[in-house]
Amino acid sequence: MSSGSAIRGSRVGSSPMRPDERSEPAPRREVTYFCAAGHESQIWFALDAAAPETWDCPRCGQPAGLDGQNPPGRSRAEPYKSHLAYVKERRSDEDGAKILAEALEKLRQRRGR
Ligand SMILES: [Zn+2]
């Protein structure tokens, strides 16, 4: 058994530098995330930190991604079923088509006008 060597290195990590001695803010960059609900959220990251592929949308809490054309979240539950296929499953094709047409019409009215 040796004695006296166990204390070495005990101060490692306790640097005396105080935060206000380097008051320069870390360089940051802005990353835009898109959620399935159409929200765009600007999140700031440190320049040297990798932005995660998904980020919870601050407005609705859904996962948001970097690709505005293809936001995550929609494919979470039924990745292989489109909405139309889902509707068709419960109704006749005719009803499904009608519902789809109505939905498209609503979408058009909301976007264009
Ligand atoms: Zn959102």
Any overview of this molecule?
The protein is an alpha+beta fold and 113 residues long. Helix content is 24%, strand content 19%. It is built from two helices and four strands. The chain has helices spanning 83-90, 93-111; strands at 28-35, 40-46, 54-56, 63-65. The protein has a four-stranded antiparallel beta sheet, with no helix packed on it. A hairpin with a 4-residue loop joins strand 1 and strand 2. 6% of the residues are buried. The model has no long low-confidence stretch (mean pLDDT 78). The protein binds zinc ion. Zinc ion binds next to loops.
Query: Order of SSEs, N→C?
Result: EEEEHH
Shape: elongated
Low-confidence stretches: none
Mean pLDDT: 78
Strand order of the largest sheet: 2-1-4-3
Give the number of DSSP strands: 4
Identify the bound ligands.
zinc ion
Q: Calculate Rg over CA atoms.
A: 26 Å
